[in-house]
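User: I'm writing a tutorial on reading structure tokens. Could you give me a worked example: one chain, its sequence, then its tokens, then a sentence or two explaining what the tokens reveal?
Assistant: Sure. Here is the example chain.
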Amino acid sequence: MRTNFYNDIVIKWTGNISLEEKIMLLFNKVRDIPYGSICSRNPKDVYLQQKGTCSGKHELLKGLYKSLGIPVKDYIILHSFNNLPVKYPKNIKEFLAKNKIVDPHNFLKIKIEDNWIVVDVTWDLPLKNLGFPVNENWNGKVDGKISVAQGGKIMETDNPILKKQELLSEFSVLEQKNRKQFLRLLTNWLEEERENLK
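And here are its predicted structure tokens:
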């Protein structure tokens, strides 16, 4: 009999605790997978490599919550990395001073009782020290904060990966190039900072 990837993780990570406790523990476990690009949004890759961006981390959490029978919806918001309250290093500050980096960010809503609440696990807890808006001390009952600067259009989607690709295809060639370059700079910087953040 073929085992279920998500069920196996739920058992490994949570054991025999209440559903309410599972919701919060799975949130914390996926949130604290270090943020960084692995050139894959596949949830299995995120789990095995213990690294991922908003897309892959939310795909993983979505599968875990669905395996518990929790209804989940996907959302995307367009945001600018220029507006995050992050203590960027000099090279990234200079890059952002010359370029506006717009990015489609995805997050989830889960149904708890009769309410759909915001869930966002993008930034791992140590990144709080660099000014990233980390969702800390979430209680599993109320909206978490969307982990990017607000103001952009929020879109519900049945396929966040495809929707992201559609949105990115509308960017100019230069905007796409600058976004990729920024994400490389961001990932490299965070890799360097990891040792100091422990």
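What the tokens reveal: Helices lie at 5-14, 19-31, 43-49, 54-67, 90-98, 160-169, 173-197. The mean pLDDT is 93.
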